[in-house]
Design a protein that fits this description.
- The protein is α/β, with parallel strands linked by helices.
- It folds into two domains: 174 residues, Zn-dependent exopeptidases (Aminopeptidase); 40 residues, no CATH class.
- The protein is 37% helix and 18% strand.
- The strands form two sheets. The chain has a six-stranded mixed sheet, sandwiched between helices. A two-stranded antiparallel sheet has the order 2-3.
- The structure holds zinc ion.
- The site of zinc ion has 5 residues, from loops.
């Protein structure tokens, strides 16, 4: 089975630092997050629009997406301009219920869950005409993780505990957005080699007491394109 393809797009780079505040440069934060996430996605083919401090035009970022036809294009940014919290975007030109929205919802939910201990404000699921979203022929989501011109949130970006949780949230968000289970043969060798344990990552989208409700959710998941969705029954 071919691996799902994800493009990680760390915003800005090179002579374009993005937002700058409290001694932080957005381009560096975006890149660090992208590299941490890329390193933690067994079973997924990950491509990066940049893997170092380099200027890449918006058109070139979208050109990579056109060539690679990813299952998900995820653009990583940090916010500024007077505000607080986390928000995510898909293109404002998409029709309601587009599969990009389902992926946005999965990602957004997982990131907010991972950030719960840090009491981050949820600014919501949004739509905008950002270039890498609007011109992207494949499902594309852009996240804005916190405001680096807010003193508390800039401090969080310096906190390894926070950046680690953010990366983990993005990783689970990607798996959830892809609706995939990572089986042993797709896992990294180290997973089965060191301690002999096999890994199975399942993504749950609902738990129900009545089979009708479970069937309803299953058909929604299948309609959304998750062809390997199934019902798991456990007697309580
Ligand atoms: Zn940015």
């Amino acid at each position: 089975m071919a691996k799902p393809v994800v493009i990680l797009d760390p915003g800005h780079g090179g002579y374009d630092p993005g937002a700058v505040a409290f001694g932080l440069e957005e381009k560096t934060l975006n890149l660090k997050l992208a590299l941490a996430v890329a390193d933690d996605l067994p079973g997924v083919k990950v491509l990066l629009t940049r893997d170092r401090d380099l200027f890449v035009s918006l058109a070139d970022r979208v050109a990579l997406s056109r060539r690679a036809r990813p299952d998900l294009f995820l653009s990583l940014h940090a916010n500024a301009g007077g505000g607080r919290g986390f928000e995510s975007f898909i293109s404002s030109s998409l029709p309601a219920g587009h599969r990009a929205f389902i992926k946005q919802k999965a990602l957004h939910g997982e990131v907010m869950r991972a950030l719960k201990p840090f009491e981050i404000i949820d600014r919501g699921l949004k739509r905008a005409a950002f270039y890498v979203l609007r011109h992207n022929p494949h499902p594309a989501v852009l996240i804005e993780s916190l405001f680096i011109d807010n003193e508390r949130e800039a401090g969080l970006w310096r906190d390894k505990n926070f950046t680690g949780s953010l990366a983990k949230g993005v990783v689970s968000g990607i798996y959830s957005a892809l609706g995939i289970r990572v089986e042993e043969d797709q896992s990294r060798e180290i997973d089965s080699g060191l301690n002999g344990q096999k890994n199975l990552y399942t993504v749950q989208v609902g738990a129900f007491s009545y089979i009708e409700n479970a069937r309803q959710r299953l058909s929604e998941a299948r309609e959304a394109g998750f062809s390997d969705a199934y019902i798991y029954h456990k007697q309580l």
